[in-house]
Amino acid sequence: MHTVRDILAVKPKRSVVRISENAAVVDAARLMNEHHVGSLVVTRGERVIGIFTERDILTRVVAPERPPAAVCVADVMTAPVACCALSTTRDECRSAMRHKRVRHLPVVENDQLVGMISIGDLLADAEAEQAETIRWLHDYLYGT
User: Fold this and answer.
1) What whole-number percentage of the chain has pLDDT above 90?
2) What pLDDT does 129 receive?
3) Model pTM?
4) DSSP letter at 11?
5) In which band, very low, low, confident or very high, does the pLDDT at 45 lie, cut at 50, 70 and 90?
6) Which of 69, 76, 103, 115 holds its CA 20 to 30 A away from the CA of 123?
7) 3 state SS of 91
8) Contact 106, 51 (CB under 8 A)
């Protein structure tokens, strides 16, 4: 079974977009648009303290009609945040995402943010593994 380390090894290298807990929601939304991401990791120094997602904007800012320029990320972020480690398996990530109803897991090692795993990353990894199994079975049955 593949681990988060394996998944991150084939994922294009991009730094995880993070934001300070004191930033305004409008700045967070602009940062998400600029980087084409659906979530930001909220940090205090190097420590992960939450996650801020498109869902947080909709349910905690837009729906209650709060002004995005006056609302602080810390007031509307999701915390505590579910995280995983490099040694976490794909199935463990998938289970955590399903039970916590999230689509992103920050990857933390020794209290340091080292990456981000999305549900799309898990699906791509499972698909690649299945394709390899199919190729192997085809070669076994029919020769190369």
Assistant:
1) 78
2) 87
3) 0.85
4) S
5) confident
6) 76
7) helix
8) yes
